[in-house]
Write a structure and sequence with these properties.
- With 177 residues, the chain is mainly beta.
- The chain is built from one helix and five strands, in the order αβββββ.
- The protein has a domain at 65-120.
- The protein has one helix spanning 2-17, and strands at residues 60-68, 73-81, 87-94, 100-108, 111-119.
- The longest helix is centred in the N-terminal third of the chain and has 16 residues, at 2-17.
Length: 177
């Protein structure tokens, strides 16, 4: 089958190759359409935008801390910036297991760098789960079922079998075509 397809494709290619492609012949002579008499439009140079104003560096320094005994939320943060894009800071928080996580970070022209430390101990939650004891073995509060007699139910009444009468309508006669 593949050989037949290759032979057919070769025949089509050889038939097409016998005829040269038509040469382009313009429909109208070039003299019929002379070059336009007007020149290309001239545009003014774009206006220069005003440079962005240079603001002086604005350094800042802040810190906060939270110590809420009702929710056991204990955390703090402090940060300092020199106003030139260099920032140093740290934050800490007490985690659920009682350890304290401390993160010290810097951000400058080299990128962001953080160092994470975990300090064990410190804050302990005042609540501890109670120790549960195994449940006592099951003892029923009533005697074993063999001590009770089986309930006595009356025998079901015998019902007569249903009786159906013949249908009250007359079937239509059958017609053969």
């Amino acid at each position: 089958m593949a050989a037949k397809l290759i032979i057919f494709a070769a025949c089509v290619v050889s038939a097409i190759a016998q005829y040269p492609a038509p040469a382009y012949k313009p429909a109208y002579p070039a003299a019929a359409y002379p070059a336009p008499a007007y020149s290309a439009p001239a545009y003014a140079a774009p206006k220069a935008y005003a440079p962005e104003p240079a603001y002086p560096p604005k350094p800042y320094n802040f810190e906060y801390s939270v110590n809420d005994p009702s929710t056991y939320d204990v955390k703090s943060q402090s940060e300092y910036s020199d106003g030139n894009g260099n920032v140093k800071g740290s934050y800490s928080l007490v985690e659920a297991d009682g350890s304290t996580r401390v993160v010290e970070y810097t951000a400058d022209s080299y990128g962001f760098n953080a160092e994470v430390k975990k300090i064990d101990g410190g804050y302990k939650a005042p609540y501890s789960a109670p120790a549960y004891k195994a449940a006592p073995a099951y003892k029923p509060a009533y005697p074993a079922p063999a001590a009770y007699p089986a309930p006595a139910y009356p025998a079901p009444a015998a019902y007569p079998a249903p009786a159906y009468s013949a249908p009250a309508y007359k079937p239509a006669p059958y017609k053969a075509y």
